[in-house]
Amino acid sequence: MLLLAAAAVLALVGAARAQCDLQQHVAGGVHYIVSPNYPLNYTAGTQCRWCITADPGAQLKLSCDVFKLPASTNCTGDRVRISLSGDDSLNDAHVYCGQRTFTLLSDANKLTMVLETLYTSTGGLFLCNMRLYR
């Protein structure tokens, strides 16, 4: 089982290197959202967006167990913004930076996650997993 999970992460890492803007529908199982170049740091100036949906009536549970971004006051530097309503404009986004772990539950069947980094960034990395929550 652990070997299958590792293979899934490695497959996603390869995909993350190719692109980091993703629209994905989650129908079951575990899905991974990883920073570009994971397990290495992303490069300065990286901008990524993940738009995740599920079937109506379902919610999405996002767990980030590896999250290491440069810390900044009020997360004005490198940051991840997450809209639990799936708002593409991120008007209701929660903002994360620094080193931490967190678990979030979407308001409905959508979630939007954005990585925004400075052009002077030293880089960072994260590994999050997404599951259906009913």
TrEMBL record:
Coiled coil: none annotated. The keyword Translocase does not apply. Residues 20-134 form the CUB domain. It comes from the Eukaryota. The keyword Disulfide bond applies. Residues 1-18 form the signal peptide. Keywords: Disulfide bond, Signal. It holds the Pfam family CUB. InterPro entries: CUB_dom, Sperma_CUB_dom_sf, Spermadhesin-Link_domain. Gene3D superfamilies: Spermadhesin, CUB domain. PANTHER family: C-TYPE LECTIN DOMAIN-CONTAINING PROTEIN (PTHR46908:SF8), CUBILIN-LIKE PROTEIN (PTHR46908). This is CUB domain-containing protein. It comes from Gryllus longicercus.
